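Appendix B. Raw example, untouched.
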Amino acid sequence: VTSSEMALDLEPDLGQGRTWLIYALVQLERFEEAWTHQREDLVRRGASAKLLAESESAFREGGWKQLMSRLLDIGDGELPVTTLNPDCIFNAGAPELLAIPLTYVGRIDEALTALERAVATETGNFDGFEANPMLAPLRDEPRYKELLRQVRAHR
């Protein structure tokens, strides 16, 4: 967490760095800090006051899962972001990152689809994704096992 924070101090627009910091804070159950960084990321991406207020409300009323559900379902025009999936703020140029919040909120099929897309297009960074604790709910899924086989075969 500390090295990610230091990197962001030097380069505040480090999108994937901020995403990994948020995920690390969630793993440590430091949800308030994660929300602070998520909010900063939303502001950096041009979120409207309405989206910021709705995100704050979702977090305060339902915790991190409700916030993630809200952000995963951002509608057209709510946030001018990402190139790979304009409907989702989590890609930031790395589709495998989308699988983490989808898994967290229990949208397993969508998480696997995001990973399959990343593997098929060879756009993902899969170093350490096998050991990522946030993807643990996927490990028994046959589709996930097939993805691991494909990733290992290309190493």
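End of appendix B.
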